[in-house]
Amino acid sequence: MSTLKADTIVAADGTSPVTLTKQSAAQHFSLVVTSNTINKSLNLASIVDEGTGRIKYNFTNAFDSRWYAYASHNMDGGGHNDGSGANTSDSDTLTASVMYVFTHHNGSANDSEGGVGLTVTGDLA
After folding, report:
1. pLDDT tens column, 30-74
2. Do the Cβ atoms of 78 and 113 come closer than 8 Å?
3. I want to staple 76 with a disulfide (CB 3.0 to 4.6 A). Which of 53, 84, 107, 109 is the partner?
4. Do 66 and 96 contact (CB within 8 A), yes or no?
5. Model-level pTM?
6. What angle do CA 102, 42, 121 make, to 5 degrees?
7. Phi (first) and psi of residue 87, to 5 degrees
8. Is pLDDT of 20 > 80?
9. What Å distances lie between residue 27 and 39, 45, 47, 68, 118, CA to CA?
10. Among candidates 103, 120, 118, which has minimal Cα distance to 39?
11. Per-residue pLDDT at 30
12. How distant, in Å, are the alpha carbons of 77, 110, 113 from that of 105?
């Protein structure tokens, strides 16, 4: 097995930094503790509380289209997660710069007590 060790990697011209292509990494992540408090985030301009169990996410940098992958979860806050969940928006409200997350507990819309985690992967515009 070979080992590659380097302090600096530069492009073929010897001066400019290497541009990484074909990389898949999260282009957005957030932890929204309540429907109006952002705890941690990347590429999140703002959130809007649009009613019980409905949060609008406005991305700082838009994706290249509305076709990106996402995962979300609802942290119940009561020490149990059974029956709690978060769903992302349907395709009618999903855009390159905005998405919605809906939180529920036992099938009913419910504001998350523990927070909502969201990760989005895709290409930025």
Report:
1. 988 865 789 999 999 999 988 888 888 999 999 999 888 888 888
2. yes
3. 84
4. yes
5. 0.74
6. 70
7. -115, 145
8. no
9. 17, 13, 17, 10, 11
10. 118
11. 92
12. 11, 6, 10
